[in-house]
Amino acid sequence: MELNFSKDQLNRLYQYAVALCGNRDDAFDLTHAALERMITINQVNNPMGYARTCIRNMYIDKIRKDTRYIHEDIDGLNESDVIDISESGFEDIQITKYSFQQCWSIMNIEERELLFLFFIEGYTAQEIADETDSSRGVILSRVHRIKKKVRNEMSDTQHDDNAGGLES
Amino acid sequence: MNTISDKDMLSNQVKQHFDDFNLSDAQADQLGKVMLRSRKPVTQTSFLQRYKSISAVAVLMLLVVISFGFREFHQHQLSAEIASEVSYNHNKLKPMEVSGNNFSQVADYFSELEFSPLQSDYLSAGSLTLIGGRYCSIQGSPAAQLRYLDDNGQLVTLFETNYDSRKFNFLPVHEKGEKPRVIYSRGYKVNMWIEKGLVMASVQKPDAS
Q1: DSSP SS3 for A96
Q2: Would you say residue B95 lies in a domain?
Q3: A28 CB within 8 Å of a chain B CB
Q4: B18–A94: do the CB atoms touch at under 8 Å?
Q5: Check: complex ipTM more than 0.90
Q6: B120: domain range?
Q7: Each residue's pLDDT tens digit in chain B (209 positions)?
Q8: Which of A8, A36, A39 to mutate to test the interface with B (most CBs of B within 10 A)?
């Protein structure tokens, strides 16, 4: 197929790859490989979505080979475990840059991917579910888990700050 | 200006985080080159490649057909040349160098040949009487010319030469049950076949059995 991504779109694909692998070089390789794969196919309805799927699948293939990848379903999280939460649950969260970086470093692939699609691409939970081949319930449950991690991190940071204050 | 301890919305933190990751100009160029390959020239190349593949197959098939046709033509031409040569010799009736009805005695005369003339099972199916023979050649190969008379007193000449697989491999093999190749030349019926490791050609009038 003929590819016509703008520089901004290429950047977003690259950032999506960064969200998954957390590494600039690997992210570029994934983006490059996804484009290479796309020129071999005839036509797709949503080139950006298809490119992200390529990046995602290739990254999962890569880490499966490295035997480091554990999918959420394997962790025991499935539709029956879904916690009923609001889709706009992120909007009330405030976080410092330091805490965010701490959180980011302990988030798994699905969580980083969800934050990218939610905040950078502006997708709804249902759209994320469609693109990542998950259910909406699993996505909302993932949102809940991210919020929990953020709150825990903020709480720990605050506790550390308070403890430091008492000592001084 | 925000410091590391300033709180901000999670959405802003995520956006700021990704703002740090942008393709360099060199990387963007590299991806642009991949996209360029996907455009029309690539399609044309694909078509060209497909065209080349089809052409290669067509040329190959043509070569096979030409090769097969050339082989057929070559075999036909060689058969015609042999038929012409043996029918000429049959018609010429050069004097016999050895006479006799006993095949073994007549065959013993051909001591200069690299093979021993043999009685043909195919030709002896009819009742023929050996009357003698002489040296000759077929396509430059030394050969034995054996003369017979059939029941009607008609002359039948049998030519025998050593089998050269490079020259005569297209001829039918009697031991395989294959029928002789028949060619008419100079008004005679010429049968050609391979038997017992020898190339044999008989010449007789068409109405003879």
Answers
A1: strand
A2: yes
A3: yes
A4: no
A5: no
A6: 65-204
A7: 445 557 788 888 888 889 889 999 989 998 998 888 877 554 455 666 777 888 888 889 888 888 888 878 888 888 899 999 999 999 988 899 999 989 999 999 999 898 999 999 888 756 889 999 999 988 888 999 999 998 888 999 999 999 988 888 889 999 999 999 999 999 999 999 999 999 999 999 987 55
A8: A39
Give the class (CATH, top level) of A75-167.
mainly alpha
pLDDT above 60: residue A165: no
Q: Where are the domains of chain A?
A: 7-65, 75-167
Residue in A39, A90, A98 closest to B38 by CB: A39
Which chain A residues are Cβ-neighbours of B23 within 8 angstroms? 7, 10-11, 14, 28
- Tell me the chain B residues in contact with residue A101 when contact means C-beta distances shorter than 8 Å: 17
At residue A134 the predicted structure's pLDDT band, cuts being 50, 70 and 90, is confident
B179 inside domain? yes
Interface residue A102 vs chain B (CB under 8 A): no
Q: Are B137 and B171 in contact (CB under 8 A)?
A: no
Give the number of domains in chain B. Answer: 1
Q: Are B35 and A27 an interchain contact pair (Cβ–Cβ within 8 Å)?
A: no
Residue A11's CB: how many other CB atoms inside 10 A?
A: 19
Residue of B7, B15, B30 lying closest to A119 (CB–CB): B15
* Nearest Cβ partner for B31 among A35, A104, A120: A35
B23 located within any domain: no
The string of pLDDT tens digits covering residues B165-189 is 888 888 999 999 999 999 999 999 9
